[in-house]
């Protein structure tokens, strides 16, 4: 087949030549590798199909030239008719190569069958060979398995043997090691027995000991041996219950190792002292390697406690008197100088920084020398706090007596508390710095707390006593200032002097702010000294209660002083009340004195209103301080916040009572002056003007103008000082009293119609003024007064219809009707009794 395909590549051959080359020969190699049926089929037919394609192309050209008319306008050929198809079939075959291809396919099938038979034959041969080789391989594997099993058995026996031999060797090694250890122990025991005999020979005799105990180069070994002997001897004595004699006795009296124990104790003490002396010498020379060697050896004696304590005790800051005196001068200053918390704070900061730096330097040496540096640091820090720091604190914090308080001029209790707070805070900072440097297992914070129990246990009592002392000193200062101002101004009249004295002792918001500042400072100390919520809440509550007591007492006293001025003004008014029959000169003098009393009353009214205003501001300051600073400290403890709120309300109740009484007195003062003005300024002709033909006067009366002017002037202070419900209640009460006072005042006069018009004008003036009170009930009363004033204006026959819409004021209207000028002449009494029988 390869040859045929190669032959067709040279050029075109005819049909007869291609047929003559058949049958094709297929090669079995064509089916190996990447076999493709399409490729095989193409190789078979490609030699024949190109000839058929050329013939078909030629015939198509002839048909296209001959039958051009069959081409359609769109370019397609018109399908030939059945007659044309039959004529074409008779003239030439449609597929001329079909016979050749059919012959080719039949030959190819025969060759493929032959190839299959060849492949089957070869496959059977391969199966036989594989079967033979497989049987040989199985036989070989069986023989190898037998050999491997035998090999494994041999290995197992060998492993068992090796294990047995190893165990035997290990036992022998253990025995040898045990024997060597026993030999070594026996050798050491012999040596120890020999040394024990040397120490047990005679009491106090250390001269005949072996060279080991006197050789400085073998000090470590000697110390180890001595400790072993001492432990053994003490154990033996303890086992036999024999006490070690305190003094050396006769050797023949010894029943055991008592002499050895005593001698060993003496030797250990002597050796320890010798090592400590060497350690000190090396310390002076700063030979850290020698110090470390000595410390390591000394660690065998009581775990090195003596060496640690000796090293700490020999530090200069614990034994140098000059350093201790310098500490005191640094904190307290030179002798006789006045100490202040700020200077003490700077001094303590400098001292504690120097202490921290010193401890840090010592820590470097301790880490390089001692095998247990943490224990040494613990001892060092403890010694620093208990000796050096305590010495300074004892001189700084001298607790004063609560019976005989130090004078305020020298700082009082407040100076001690400030010193305590500064010392505590700075010492806490020192503890944190020392903890950062290193202090072993020492609880440095707890040790620092232990330095202040004598001061912290009684701290709340001292804080409250200090606040009371400050309050008393402030009150004395205010009284002294008031007295000095009174003396400097002189006496210019009893009423005016009383007024000035009252103003000098007026409530000051600045003073209350100072109370709060004291309390804030005290609360900050409470927070500093109390870390737990419960103790902190207890101390804060006690300190805040002091503030409540101080503010309550201060503002109550201020209000009472303001009330005293109101009482003095009232006394002045009562002193100049005249009888009905007096001389003109006496009346003029009384009127002048009444004017002075009225001025004193107005001044006292203004002073009390200022006091109330400042009292309100002071209470607001306390409430804000409680909300911002106190409340959050009390909330962690159940009930503490509510209890403080209740105490605050109770403390302010006394001030509220004084304020209420004073406001009532203010109303009395105002009404007294209103009555005086009405009595002095109101004329009978104001409401009973003569019928002279002139036009009526529609202006308010002079008395009304004076009263409204006075009220406007004096109540300006009330409008400024009072607020909220207090202002509403005060103005409502004053409006009711003014209404009642005017009614009583008008009962003294007789009214004609023109006088009624003027009265109505006065009522309108009063009503417009009281409308600024924003009190609806008062406004309603003055509106009804305006209605009742109509009884003086209308004709007698119209009175019956005047109050038909307002029967509630009929009773007061009857009283007004009786004041009509024509009440008797018009016989209004009988007419009213017939109209309103219930009134009779």
UniProtKB/TrEMBL annotation:
Domain Exocyst complex component Sec10 N-terminal, residue spans: 99-215
Domain of life where this protein originates: Eukaryota
One Pfam match: Sec10_HB
Keywords: Coiled coil, Exocytosis, Transport
GO biological process: exocytosis; Golgi to plasma membrane transport
Domain Exocyst complex component Sec10-like alpha-helical bundle stretches: 221-830
Keyword Isomerase: no
Region: Disordered, residue numbers: 56-83, 478-498
Matching InterPro entries: Sec10-like, Sec10_HB, Sec10_N
Keyword Signal: no
GO cellular component terms attached to this protein's record: exocyst
Compositional bias ranges of the Polar residues kind: 481-492
Family: Belongs to the SEC10 family.
Protein's name according to its UniProt entry: Exocyst complex component SEC10-like
Gene that this polypeptide is encoded by: LOC104600227
């Amino acid at each position: 087949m390869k040859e045929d395909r190669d032959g067709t590549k040279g050029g075109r051959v005819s049909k007869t030549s291609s047929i003559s080359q058949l049958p094709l020969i297929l090669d079995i190699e064509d089916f190996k590798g990447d076999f493709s049926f399409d490729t095989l089929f193409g190789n078979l037919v490609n030699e024949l199909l190109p000839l058929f394609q050329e013939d078909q192309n030629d015939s198509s050209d002839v048909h296209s030239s001959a039958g051009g008319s069959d081409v359609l306008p769109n370019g397609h050929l018109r399908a030939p008719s059945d007659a044309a198809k039959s004529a074409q079939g008779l003239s030439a075959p449609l597929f001329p190569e079909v016979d050749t291809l059919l012959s080719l396919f039949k030959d190819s099938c025969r060759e493929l069958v032959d190839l299959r038979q060849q492949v089957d034959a070869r496959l059977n041969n391969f199966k036989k060979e594989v079967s033979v080789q497989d049987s040989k391989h199985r036989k070989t594997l069986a023989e190898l398995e037998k050999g491997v099993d035998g090999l494994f058995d041999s290995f197992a026996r060998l492993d068992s043997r090796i294990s047995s031999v190893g165990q035997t060797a290990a036992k022998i090694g253990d025995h040898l090691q045990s024997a060597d250890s026993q030999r070594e122990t026996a050798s050491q025991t012999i040596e120890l027995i020999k040394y024990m005999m040397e120490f047990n020979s005679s009491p106090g005799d250390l001269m005949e000991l072996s060279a080991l105990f006197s050789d400085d180069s073998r000090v470590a070994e000697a110390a180890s041996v001595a400790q072993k002997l001492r432990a053994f001897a003490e154990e033996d004595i303890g086992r036999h219950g024999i006490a070690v004699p305190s003094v050396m006795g006769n050797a023949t009296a010894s029943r055991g190792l008592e002499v050895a124990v005593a001698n060993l104790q003496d030797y250990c003490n002597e050796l320890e002292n010798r090592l400590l002396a060497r350690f000190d010498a090396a310390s002076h020379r700063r030979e850290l390697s020698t110090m470390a060697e000595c410390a390591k050896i000394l660690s065998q004696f009581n775990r090195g406690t003596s060496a640690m304590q000796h090293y700490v005790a020999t530090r200069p800051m614990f034994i140098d008197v000059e350093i201790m005196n310098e500490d005191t001068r640094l904190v307290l200053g030179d002798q006789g100088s006045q100490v202040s918390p700020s200077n003490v704070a700077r001094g303590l900061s400098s001292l504690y920084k120097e202490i921290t730096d010193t401890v840090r330097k010592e820590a470097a040496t301790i880490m390089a020398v001692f095998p247990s540096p943490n224990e040494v640091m613990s001892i060092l820090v403890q010694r620093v706090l208990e000796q050096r720091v305590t010495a300074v604190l004892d001189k700084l914090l001298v607790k004063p007596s609560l019976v005989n308080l130090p004078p305020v001029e020298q700082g009082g209790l407040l100076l001690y508390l400030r010193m305590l707070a500064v010392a505590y805070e700075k010492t806490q900072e020192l503890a944190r710095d020392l903890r950062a440097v290193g202090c072993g297992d020492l609880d440095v914070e707890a040790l620092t707390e232990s330095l202040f129990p004598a001061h912290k246990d009684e701290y709340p009592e001292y804080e409250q006593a200090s606040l009371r002392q400050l309050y008393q000193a402030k009150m004395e200062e205010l009284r002294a200032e008031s007295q000095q101002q009174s003396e400097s101004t002189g006496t210019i009249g009893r009423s005016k002097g009383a007024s000035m004295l009252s103003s000098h002792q007026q409530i000051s918001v600045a003073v209350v702010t100072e109370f709060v500042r004291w309390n804030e400072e005290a609360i900050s100390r409470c927070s500093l000294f109390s870390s737990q919520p419960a103790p902190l809440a207890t101390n804060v509550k006690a300190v805040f209660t002091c503030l409540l007591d101080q503010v309550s007492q201060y503002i109550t006293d201020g209000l009472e002083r303001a009330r005293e001025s109101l009482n003095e003004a009232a006394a002045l008014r009562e002193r100049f009340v005249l009888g009905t029959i007096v001389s003109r000169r006496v009346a003029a003098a009384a009127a002048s004195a009444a004017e002075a009393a009225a001025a004193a009353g107005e001044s006292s009214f203004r002073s009390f209103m200022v006091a109330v205003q400042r009292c309100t501001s002071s209470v607001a300051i306390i409430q804000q301080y409680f909300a911002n600073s106190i409340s959050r400290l009390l909330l962690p403890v159940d009930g503490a916040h509510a209890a403080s709120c209740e105490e605050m309300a109770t403390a302010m109740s006394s001030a509220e009572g004084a304020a209420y009484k004073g406001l009532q007195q203010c109303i009395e003062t105002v009404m007294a002056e209103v009555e005086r003005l009405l009595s002095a300024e109101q004329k009978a002709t104001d409401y009973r003007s003569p019928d002279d033909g002139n036009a009526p006067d529609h202006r308010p009366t002079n008395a009304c103008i004076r009263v409204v002017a006075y009220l406007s002037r004096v109540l300006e202070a009330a409008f400024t000082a009072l607020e909220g419900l207090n202002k509403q209640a005060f103005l409502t009460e004053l409006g009711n009293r003014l209404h009642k006072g005017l009614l009583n005042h008008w009962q003294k006069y007789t009214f004609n119609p023109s006088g009624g018009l003027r009265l109505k004008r006065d009522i309108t003036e009063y009503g417009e003024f009281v409308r600024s009170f924003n009190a609806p009930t008062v406004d309603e009363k003055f509106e009804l007064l305006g209605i009742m004033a109509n009884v003086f204006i209308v004709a007698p026959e119209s009175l019956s219809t005047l109050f038909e819409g307002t029967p509630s004021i009929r009773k007061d209207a009857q009283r007004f009707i009786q004041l009509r000028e024509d009440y008797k002449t018009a016989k209004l009494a009988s007419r009213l009794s017939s109209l309103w029988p219930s009134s009779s």
